[in-house]
Protein 1
Amino acid sequence: MRNILIIARRDLRAQFNSPVAYVVIGGALLLLGVLFFLLPRMGGGFLEGSFWERDRASMEELFKYLPLLMSIFVIPAVTMRSLAAEKGSGTLELLITMPVRDSEVILGKYFAACTMVLILLAATMFYPIVMFKMPWHLGQLDWGPVWSGYVGCILFSLAAVAIGMMLSSLTESDVIAFFLTTGALFVLYAIGWIVSAVPGAAGDAIGFVSFQTRYESFARGLIDTRAVVYFLSVAVVCLLVSFRSLESRKWS
Amino acid sequence: MSNDVMIYANDLSKSFGSFRALDKINFEVKRGEVVGFLGPNGAGKSTTMRILTCFISPTGGSARVNGHDVFDESLKVRESLGYLPQRAPLYLEMSVLEYLRFAADLRNLDRDTFRRRATSVVEVCGLAQVLGKEIRYLSHGYRQRVGLAQALIHDPPILILDEPTSDLDPNEKAEFLDYLKQIGRERTVMLSTHNLSEVEASCARAIIISGGRIVADGPLDEIRAKSGRVRYVVSVQESSGNAPYRGRGSPPKRGDVEEALGKIAGVKKLGEVPTDERAHACELVSERDVDLRPEIFKLMVDRGWVLLELHRDSQTLEDVFRSLTIGDERRNRHLGAAADGSDQDEEEEEDENDREDEEPGRAGRSEQSEKTAKADRS
């Protein structure tokens, strides 16, 4: 446990010592702001206008864009360095020849990456607080879906970060790790859009795998235990794969 | 296995796919020994060190470090090791002090011990000036020192250093080797290098590895004597320029000297050494226990030639190293078309080696190079 924390602390510090953390978190918040406030929404075939024109006290839009943004930008950028860059530069060799277990290395890096994503999530809390609580009162906000939305986002990130770690452990280049992760997470998210278009068992199967479908209920205020179990098991499986992949250096 | 054996490798093998990087190597390193691990590039030095530091696992055989098996008790092995990998890979975004503290934390050093150890390590490695600097701004030499510092921070009983001096300047090198000698009294140090003078400066014992096999292992003197040969350089006047020629008759022609020297009994190898047009120079190699100097002198007197120089030296470690590991180099050269004079020299040496395959190590090596040659063809 001690070693996990030491490794996680080092990784976090490395993220914040380099511009990566600031660019990622700052960029994500900026993009989110644009998407949330300025982008008009399509609803039921009608253009409903941007947040200001809709005149509704709802954070729904935030939870619509947040997972997508995290999938294609934040999580790949956070996890790309965790193992791939260390393998590429050889620093992994020094780390692993210290008296630490491989599992501690994986978990330490996973904790660090999750913490980064949680920092971003915490920063988005600013939106509802500022608009509906502290200086301004733009309306009566239903806080239930906000909390469940955050629970969903957290579970979503736990799984997505583990996927990123896994892909990062399979390559030695952080650029490749970034694009692999972006691709994988985007596909897992985007297949949710075609669920209704695919009939029968195939559609069900897609819905079962899709991160978007799993996540949607949280955004509506529903904590679905099946989704909880799904996200957590994806995380565990991917971490196990990265652990094995790290171990495989011994045999290759 | 006595308690004093700190590193013990038994039939250690490692294959990467069909490539045998290590082929059943055996060695022991005792407490208080500083051992130089020598070999050409790609001979298996780093592979061996990575196995000993539990970074990779052997495909066959076993290894014990400080009495612990590298496979079953890898944590204990790593606790008793200080390791500096090749090229000293460090976290570039950390400062030197941060990095040392990170290493110390993972080594479970408490704050006071860290402070005490850090002070001495920083002094030894000459890092006082750069403690607060980020590693990315340091030169390679300094990075190497930081790498050393992290290997020493927990005062390990065993140090494994993979080419520790490759990026140091000559002064730093000398200082570092002195320091190694000093700490090597109570500790076990294994350092790999292909620089022979370093081994001569700091190690009492060397292990020479080539093509994944150990070709020599023992005290330096023994290794030097291993080839059991003596080298002579003879140069005979060819033309005197403006000065009168002091010999009898006319000066020898090209080839005469070589031919005559080749007839002396006991000459194992003969080659011409390039000189200016005033002299013929030849290099002779003989067994250690015969002295060819009287014979050479007699030849000169009989022919009436003018002997300008005759000198005899036993082979240096470098020569031994070259003759022991040459198979490797030849294999590498198969692909390259470039061959200059020095290469030709080596070629001759090889032919010579091939002729007398009486030493088991050598026989094994040529077998090995045959194998690879086959692999190359297929």
Protein 2
Amino acid sequence: MTIKKLSSKKAIILFEEAVSLEDIPNMTNIAELEELIDKAKFDKKTETELKNRLKLLRTESVEHSKAFSGLVKYALKKEDGL
Amino acid sequence: MLSKKKMDYKKELLKKLKFQYDFEKLARDVYSKDIKKLTDKKVIKTIQSIIEDEKRHMIAVEEMIDIVKKTDLKVKEVKAGKGTKGKKLKIKRESTEHIKSKIFSVVKELEKRDCILISDTVGNYFKDIIDLLTLEKSHRFLYVSYNKVPKYTKATLKEHGVDPNKIIFVNCSGIPNNEDINLKPEELVKLSIVITETAKRIKNLFVLFDSLSSMPTYHTPQVITRFVSSVNDHAREKGYKIIWIVINESIPTTLYNQLCPLFDKVISLK
């Protein structure tokens, strides 16, 4: 049985949608969370606990955005689909 | 007992953490659905690893919610000492004010220059765009969404009190919709025409290009440089403003260095 590939055009749509999701609502909310944690002035231990987790979200979200952008480039090259 | 201000921060923080949890869950579900449509092993592996990250993120956000909920005892309360009655406690200068003052410097530059490049980080750039659109709300904007789907841009703007209906969107994401001017990311000539024609129709137009960093996916550095140069020349000739956004992490340094001399001013918001 031949497995049907997704057309490159449709794959690009999925990946660009993912880049938009990661970059806009997600990163904006993470930036605002950072500001709020600073403003709230938690004790040092609590602040560190919150910021470490937020750092993980930020770093990996940036990586996701880059990965999906890379997949857009990859899909553009793969004319026969993915 | 928590002060009113701290209660507000806590409430706001919990609201934003809930949003973050919902986002991570949505991302996990969307990517899990997407993966079923694909057959390429390399792509599947990449997305699978992202799905695993999203699951860990959901746990991390849940933990953050728990930490914040338990802060009643942990938050340091500033006790009003002798002589402080009636006086406002000074709060350390906050990072938002720092960024806002930088955005204000962009606004100032726009009074005397036509073509500005804003260099920013992926983590902050959209928040800075919101601040810019808020500060320049008296102007009409043409928002070129080069590789982002405008529905997310519009929803986030709306949430932050910026009316997206007052902005003209050029959607170059390749996912057309009925509300915007739809172009393919490859169609730079058509994009130039849209910018030119809109500038003819609307006096004192501001064009916002989001973002230059995504252009190398579709075009060579030579084509990008020619395009930017010609759009900037036209803006200077016709007297409208154009603000280009570049994400530091996502543009090759050689291209960035080639582009910088094409603008009247380069402002770093890092």
Protein 3
Amino acid sequence: MIEVKNVVKSFDGFNALDDLSINVPTGAIYGLVGPNGAGKSTIIRHITGIFRQDRGEVLVNGEPVFENPKIKKDIAYISDDVFFFTQATIRDMMKFYKGVCPSFSTERFEKLRSAFDLSENSKMRSLSKGMQKQAAFWLMVSMCPKVLVLDEPVDGLDPVMRRQVWSILMADVAENGTTVLVSSHNLRELEDVCDHVGIMNKGKLLLERNLSELQDNISKVQLALPDGKTLPEDLRVLHHSSTGRLQTIIVRGVAEEITNKLATCEPLFMDVIPLSLEEIFIYELGGEHYEVKDIIL
Amino acid sequence: MKSKTSYFNRTLFLNLLKRSWPIFAGYLVVWLIVLPVSLANTLSYNTAIMADKFDLQALATAAGRQILSAGLYGGVIMAGVFGILVAMAAFSYLYNARSVSMMCSLPIKREGTFLSVFTAGLSAVLLINVVVFLIALCVAAAYGVLALSAGYLLQWLAMVCMLNLFFFGFSVLCASFTGNIFTLPLVYVVLNFTAYVVEYLVKTVMSLFIYGISMDNNFVFLPLSSPAYLFMQTFVADSTVPAGETFEVVGHYYNGWTALCIYAAVGIVFAILAMAIIKHRRMEAAGDVVALKPLKPIFKYCLSVGCALVLGIIIFETAFSNSTAVYGVRGMLFMLLFMLFGAFIGYFAAEMLMKKTLRVFAGRSWIGLGITSVLITALLLCGEYDVFGIEGKLPDADEVKGVMIMCSGESVLFEEPENIKAAIELQRNIIKHKDENEVFTGNMEAYANYVSFVYTYENEKTLSRDYTLYKDANDDILTLNDLMNVKEAVDYRKELEVPVSVDTIADAYVSYFDKTEMTYRDVELTAAQAYELYTECILPDINDGALGRIWLIQTEDYYSGVYDCTINFSVEKRLSDNNYKGDYFYTTLTRNAERTKQWIADNTDIEPCTMGESRDIMNAQKDSESKLYAEKYGIQIMTAIPAQD
């Protein structure tokens, strides 16, 4: 279990993390989303023990991560921009990780060989960015981690390889109960794999839910009201648009409660459409003044 | 599963050795050339030149000097250069966000990572030292001097290992607080020489506007600049045994072991300090010029003051290189202006480097520059108006053991109390005449003498002051001339470091103005002649007060009482192969030196003429040449060149 409690981190006076708290249950695949500069990579670097927080606590399985090899040996981390020693081959890096991570499994490394179209003797610097990401994924999963922290893991991978990577990830979670924290801007893909989601903005967590709860708690309704009728005032409308008589509203709340309230207006037409994670992300952040702006050029 | 994490990780250790092998290979190759190959060459050469009379001890002595010199000079350069190269390789992970992320997410404590790569780097160079030592031993054995050279080689090994400890420790410390791989070597080089350079610059600035401040070579903070200290203050000395009147060199030794031990210990302290810094370092500082927050203002103000000194001096010297009268308050104000400009450049350059932007001229930044400027201004004003009493400082005669006065290439050490008092009194008068002397600053026409006073106190501390005296300003130069010719001064000049004998006189001649040919000529003397002239004529004449004087200023007595004729000889004593100790004697013949004059008349065909005669002849010749020149090219000469005073 990953627990981030009231963490504050500032860089030269700028608060990158502002009293941030996150809870990732054991065995969960937690999607951490947020706009650019929200602090996702920063909190990930705290969770992996790279940065030390100014205030608050970062715990994994109840113990602080920073300078705690006992905990860090169970954590594998793939950064958004992976690093390997300049002259090293994949085999060299495998030997390196095997030497520093006691849980590294050569057997698993061999098993995963077929999943990646990479030569062990290839120099890391000669590989493309996508291939380096594959190599990093191969090596990290071979470490048999209990916690896998991924920062933009499929960025740069082709569609087939993206699917391959997610497949390995899901299998690892299913077989070993690995806890996964993944940060990505590809919400469509996160939606398919995550069971928990946290949305960050400006160093804070806006919301943190089980994905199904999140989707249940916000609804998109299309309706047409008779003349003279207006929307009930107690609806928590996040977004409202209309085309002729047809209105589209994004409303916070359970779908059943919302339709019951709207029914009192005797709509001519009403349909509840499930919201995608991307839409939730956009509408939640819209309330935080992070919306798509209409720019006239 | 048992955790492998500890304060040492074998994989990291081996990984550095594997990644950095070209650096270590370079270190090995250079040392092989500097020591075993070079040693073999020296032994081979010396064996060849000793073909007639082979001397094993002499061979080992020659090898000993070379080995110890390699340990000192080669050691400092090699340890200094490769120390930083190895540190850059070992701690390169600190300077890049990607590598920081990878290395710091590993299940190893920061101390563990530090110790693994530190020991890898250090042990590699120490191991190479041992390999070079063993190969050098084989070379010595091949030439039959193993037993005699082993000690020197062991000393070499100890010297080089201690230098490695210091320079690697220092490099690692620099690595711990810098955040940029390109900044690291720059900071390392600068810090290695900062103390020496800053002290030199401060002295230069002070000497420009504080009357009498000496640009001597006595650097108080020199030990803080290790390479400069080791090169300037430690050396390979001769081990000698008495041999007749002189000494014979029987070996060599290094005189800086204490310093080396202290530097090695400091290197270890630096390494421990570096580990503590890295343990607490904010890893997000990767890429920053200065990685430690508390060091940022220090860096900013140091760069500001450093630029103030460097640019201030450069601009001042450039702007007034041909100036005739920049001194006193005016000089100080110009220097202040240039230093403030330098401070401005340094301050905002530091801000730009640290903030990684050119937009650093916002309101609050100027406060720091203002403080720096006020401090510089205050210090310069205090210096100019002698608030600290530097200009007027005179030693108490009772506390002075001796005073060395240097003027016009002559130096005399005065130790007699009355002469020390006279020297202090002379300095007091010079200070009193500051304004009179400074008026002549930069006046190329004025007859000037540069004089240095170096007082040595009973507690061995020293006080140095330098002045330029002008003949037309006051009588100080005459007083100095008298002081430089008191009996103690004359006796000091006749004492030579090598005893004078027929065997030690290497070269002797009498130089005089030949009035018939109107040119200067030398007459060579044999060693026996020179010895006879020195012992039987010159020394008695000096003792009678008829010879041995010097003239800082030319008066009528000088032109009438002194011959344009000098007696010169050098003495030298061979200490070992290519190693000689020598000294030089010269004196100017005077009318009163009867014995010496007689000897020259009896043994040479020299007819010396007085300084006045030679001056007149030379002037007449110049006058004649000028006329001929004028006639040839149709130039009208208005006046003849007047005779010098």
Protein 4
Amino acid sequence: MSSERPPIKFRTEDLDFYYGPTRALKNVTIDCYDKKVTAIIGPSGCGKSTFIRTLNRMNDVIAGTRVEGRILLDGQDVYAPDVDVVELRRRVGMVFQKPNPFPKSIYDNIAYGLRINGMRDKKAVEATVEKSLRGAALWDEVMDRLDENAFALSGGQQQRLCIARALAVEPEVILFDEPCSAIDPIATAKVEDLIEHLKTSYTVVIVTHNMQQAARVSDYTAFMMLGELVEFDATEKIFTNPANKLTEDYITGRFG
Amino acid sequence: MTRANQKKIVQFAGFLSLRLAVVLVLAILVLFLYDIIKKGGGVISWEFLTTAPRKGMTQGGIFPAIVGTFFVTLITAVLAIPLGMCAAIYLNEYAWQNVLTRLIRLSIRNLSGVPSIVYGLFGVILFVNALKFGTSILSAGLTLGLMTLPWTITASEEALKAIPNSYREGALALGATKWQMIRTNVLPYAVPGMLTGTVLGLARAAGETAPIMFTGAAFFLPYLPKSLSDQFMALPYHLYIMSTQHHAILQVRPIAYGTALVLIAFVLGLNMTAVILRYRLRRKYR
């Protein structure tokens, strides 16, 4: 089976993560394949969000945390001392659980990432803003009100704005941390369509509470429990013929 | 009595006591202002505001005291605003939250409770004597600045804490450095709130007597301060003299009330600035 799998973009090897003395991740080894969608599922508190936040080192900002094991992006350890974490986060974008537009205009929300990454040319910024909004399937809805405050958008639109904002800085990987848990079903469907579309150009890792969502959008699925990886396989396999009894119990709704 | 009625009565009594508390506070404030305006309003005139005291301060105005308070507050602001904001940014955004930062924070809170006379004496030792600034508007302004710093830091930290963490994480996730994140996605939204708290601290400093009476405020000066090393007259100190130290205390009572009125107006003006700042902040970012 492994011979037919695409190249690996992200690989975690025996990843351990500690909040102070609490071990939140235990020996997690997962491969995220290039230009595929990898879903991380599992009950609340199983470490899914902690896991995804180690990939772009977002957990660095939390005091008293510690990482053991390795995380390889294109074969290079992202926790190596010579890694520029700022550049890592540019390459590995993130969309958060709650839409978090900045209190700026729609245009400036997208342009923000470009400006901090040194894009000064106004024409180029303008073109990238449009491209990113199109990429996030939001352009048609906001093209005539780019100067409006982003808070004026609906929750679902805000989340797609956040996706557009992530796309603008041209990442290679996009991490979604339960992107649909705060938006309605119709908006969720739009975001799912978008993820489906994004994998043609980006590697996607998505944490989700919603098993149907994992089944719909992902190519590979990892099931985690209590900080440990229980099972990782092709999504089809996980949802039709899981190898582990725990996985089966979870996806059939016997607990969770 | 039914249980429902009982609940209603308890609620009525609860709200009534809250309402009475507000009425009481307002009544005290109104009475206080009424008294000062009644007794001091009469002496307020263009001449009172723009001329110096004459004839052993029994006549004339309070112009030098107004100018002195204005400039000493300015010096206070120049020291306390940037230093306080920078310290708050460091404490809230850069420093790890651990025992040491908790200790620092606790010390700062305690400093804001130190009596102002203690700051005054400290100012004498540090600015007047050790740094040889002499009794001057500079020494007094710096002393007031030191006294205001804990307030500025605390208020600025609160303003920074009010900025949602999602703004910070959102910026970092796009590849912003920590400094870029603070400068472009935290400070623009926090600064109005930081200024609000700071201005309230300044208003308090402007009304202080104890920290300036040993460090630079003069009993009477026939001229305005021309440099930082000059002494100056100040509204609160002038009020103190006119109400307790003057040789013809009953004769100058109206002048004392007039001074009090001007001082209150000055402080009120600063507070209004803070309120307007906060109002603008809300409209802009909520």
